[in-house]
UniProtKB/TrEMBL annotation, chains A, B:
Keywords: DNA-binding, Transcription, Transcription regulation. The keyword Transcription regulation applies. It comes from the Bacteria. Residues 10-29 bind DNA. Pfam families: TetR_C_9, TetR_N. PROSITE patterns: HTH_TETR_2. The lineage of its organism: Bacteria, Pseudomonadati, Pseudomonadota, Alphaproteobacteria, Hyphomicrobiales. One of its GO terms (molecular function) is DNA-binding transcription factor activity. Residues 1-47 form the HTH tetR-type domain. InterPro entries: Homeodomain-like_sf, HTH-type_TetR-like_transc_reg, HTH_TetR, Tet_transcr_reg_TetR-rel_C_sf, TetR_C. The keyword DNA-binding applies. This is Transcriptional regulator, TetR family.
Length: 192, 192
């Protein structure tokens, strides 16, 4: 999928590339969705264990949040197929696939946000924030760099997502999520 | 499309529903993509003229930004097919459709963000912010309420997008985009 930069591959392509027997691949995973799900589950499991590790670190909730923002954007960048795969599986007519993606991807990530926000609020670092709304805004914003970018490239002259763009977006998201767009002066005025 | 809450409709469905002749619909729009594009172009044109109107108002850039956030989320909510249509057309094998969407949807919105951010920075209200990165994060976050929500509903017990959820999300996004998640105390500490 990385080679072709597409998820439009067949089980026999995979069998051929891997040197495995197509029938064996089919026996093991059932069908293409089964194989894609297994692939996504493997990568998701790695990312989710990183989240547990991050939560246990002796650093502030703010520092954890910043590391998490960088982590999501880099994971999407490193596994370009992950994002397309999630979109594809969530919109399958096969609702069992969509349920699986919710179970091993959406649910643990939402749970992580819930715990991180609670920690930040209890430490006086974060404003009280709804975890479901927070999940939606953070994941949506990170996702859109990869999902929406090629639409921008065409008509607007915006280039593709490179290492540099990734780094800039991580910095942008850290600043925006932590401090927002208002200058200190304006914010103090709004608060007062 | 609203009736079926799906964009999976045929030209003849449309002809039947509207009382028009299927051949005439085909003659006028060429094919289904042509009709969907015309529909999206019509709604996008309305939204874009609202943006020009907003930019000309004698209010602060911060007030304009807040109205804009509410405007995007309400537009997606009012036209549930708009979001799916954009996703569908941008991922068509027909790249001409994707180019059209970029031209009448992405480009004018990006241009609006560019001008609003410049105004806010020149008035000392906003931090210097890259318009392309800002567009990506704001549109991605708004889009995800509608695109990602049904994935969350299943495995995580999160309900559908109602009037109330919309209002909560508008409030959440206004707060997050303007002031971020950090409390004033933390932010002052981070800045100092």
């Amino acid at each position: 999928m990385i080679e072709r930069s597409s998820i439009e591959i067949s089980l026999s392509d995979i069998a051929q590339k891997s040197g495995a027997n197509a029938a064996l691949v089919k026996y093991h995973f059932g069908n293409k969705d089964g194989l894609l799900l297994a692939l996504l589950a493997r990568d998701a499991a790695t990312e989710m264990s990183n989240l547990e590790y991050l939560l246990a670190q002796p650093i502030t909730a703010t520092a954890k949040l910043k590391l998490h923002i960088g982590g999501i954007i880099r994971a999407y960048y490193r596994f370009p197929y992950m994002n397309r795969l999630i979109h594809y599986l969530l919109h399958e007519t096969n609702t069992a696939s969509a349920d699986e993606v919710s179970k091993f991807f959406v649910a643990p990530l939402l749970d992580f946000h819930r715990r991180l926000l609670a920690e930040g609020v209890s430490q006086g670092e974060f404003r009280a924030t709804d975890p479901v709304l927070f999940y939606t805004s953070l994941i949506g914003a990170c996702d859109h760099l990869f999902f929406g970018r090629h639409a921008m490239s065409r008509a607007t002259g915006v280039g593709p997502v490179t290492d540099d763009v990734c780094r800039q977006y991580i910095k942008h998201m850290e600043t925006l999520i932590c401090g927002g767009i208002l200058t200190q002066v304006e914010e103090a005025a709004a608060a007062g």
